[in-house]
Automatic annotation (TrEMBL):
Pathway terms, separated by semicolons: Isoprenoid biosynthesis; isopentenyl diphosphate biosynthesis via mevalonate pathway; isopentenyl diphosphate from (R)-mevalonate: step 2/3
Species of origin: Paramicrobacterium agarici
Pfam families named among the record's database cross-references: GHMP_kinases_C, GHMP_kinases_N
The protein's name: phosphomevalonate kinase
Residue ranges annotated for the GHMP kinase C-terminal domain, each copy included: 263-341
Keywords: ATP-binding, Kinase, Nucleotide-binding, Transferase
GO MF term (any one): ATP binding
EC number of the protein: 2.7.4.2
SUPFAM superfamilies reported in the protein's UniProt record: GHMP Kinase, C-terminal domain (SSF55060), Ribosomal protein S5 domain 2-like (SSF54211)
Domain GHMP kinase N-terminal: 90-171
Cited InterPro entries: GHMP_kinase_C_dom, GHMP_kinase_C_sf, GHMP_kinase_N_dom, Phosphomevalonate_kinase, Pmev_kinase_bact, Ribosomal_Su5_D2-typ_SF, Ribsml_uS5_D2-typ_fold_subgr
Length: 359
């Protein structure tokens, strides 16, 4: 049996703007994981995951490729990951085989509510890592990220893939997304392996050094958020309300580049300034678009951080889920944590998952 795991992630800055190819963001991987166990099987394969309920999803192969044993085809990252790797395997003339996958996640609480730590990305990366071992493909982290990106955009063409990069490479990273239209066309024209070999416009990923004088504190609002709903709403309103989107992109780039420069210089004050700037930039966007990025709970989470000289903001799409705080190691957190408890914000004790290498 093969057992692998992939970590969850948090956005530190650059959300929404990162959806546009080439716009920078900063993310971090955290030490909570999605696990995938793979057992070889014969004649058919299966996927056991809570998302399918008690019944596993059973799959076979026919001339069309992977087929399911029932009509309902879920919109699904695991299946898309399998199909993408299987296409790669077939292009490389490797004999296809069957396997059972079993998925378990630490990225939700005991009652199954998601924390918003990028579970779809982590399950995609973990599935690809398991198949990389099973078929002995010896893919580098960059190639695995590219496979994960191909699998993801087949399901969700607008996703930036920042969460995939954090989950693949670990640690702190600076990330900008590829042009997904180009990537989809590459897959169509050259197959999966050909698309992976090509350069992707806009894509870049770079290792960052964590700020030595700051700690990361994560608060979970307990409010479930839908990234696709928020991103779609923003896209609709952007046109309807003539939001000055290019100003937002420029401001976000300014904040994130400031953050990256401060991380490179290990300048704690600069890091906090950039995070506060990124919070303001998202608020200005939301004041025009009104999609509800910074909910009242996320505003409280960030205000209590600023009140103790730290910096805090929503992480990811906002609308609920988590917020991040960067505070100096000697900051007095007792008041902040008391205020969070009063506001039903749960402190998630997460450490940064270290670099997996490959960058
Ligand atoms: C969601 O976690 C972050 C967004 O920037 C969307 C994405 O990056 O795909 C809002």
């Amino acid at each position: 049996m093969i057992t692998v795991r992939a970590p969850g992630k948090l956005f530190i800055a650059g959300e929404y703007a990162v959806v546009e190819p080439g716009n920078p963001s900063v993310l971090v991987a955290v030490d909570r994981f999605v696990r995938v166990e793979l057992t070889p099987s014969v004649g058919k394969g299966s996927i056991h995951s809570e998302q399918y309920g008690r019944q596993p999803l059973v799959w076979y192969r026919d001339a069309r490729g992977i087929v399911l044993d029932h009509d309902m085809r879920p919109v699904d990252y695991i299946l898309s990951s399998i199909e993408t790797v299987e296409q790669y395997v077939s292009e490389r003339a490797i004999a296809p085989r069957f396997y059972d996958l079993s998925v378990s996640s630490e990225l939700d609480d005991v009652s199954g509510r998601k924390f918003g730590l990028g579970s779809s990305a982590a399950v995609t990366v973990a599935t690809i890592n398991a198949l990389n071992q099973f078929y002995d493909l010896q893919l580098t982290p960059r190639q695995r990220y590219k496979l994960a990106m191909l699998a993801t955009i087949a399901v969700s063409p607008h996703a930036s893939g920042g969460d995939l990069a954090a989950s693949t490479f670990g640690g702190w990273i600076a990330y900008s997304a590829p042009d997904r239209i180009q990537v989809l066309r590459l897959r169509e024209a050259r197959g999966v392996a050909g698309a992976m070999d090509a350069d992707w416009d806009g894509f870049s990923v770079r290792r960052l050094t964590p700020p030595s004088e700051l700690q990361l504190i994560v608060g979970w609002t307990g409010e479930p958020a839908s990234t696709s709903r928020l991103v779609d709403d923003l896209r609709d309103r952007r046109w309807a309300e003539e939001i000055r989107y290019s100003d937002f992109l420029e401001q976000s780039r300014h904040d994130v580049e400031g953050l990256i420069a401060s991380l490179d210089a290990d300048d704690a004050e600069g890091v906090k300034r950039a995070i506060k700037g990124a919070r303001r930039t998202l608020s200005q966007l939301d004041a025009a678009a009104k999609v509800g990025i910074e909910t009242p709970a996320l505003a409280r989470l960030s205000d209590t951080a600023e009140a103790i000289g730290a910096a805090g903001k929503s992480s990811g799409a906002g609308g609920g889920d988590c917020g991040v705080v960067l505070a100096s190691h000697d900051a007095d957190l007792s008041g902040l944590l008391r205020e969070w408890e009063r506001s039903d914000i749960r402190h998630l004790a997460l450490a940064v998952h270290p670099s997996e290498g490959g960058l």
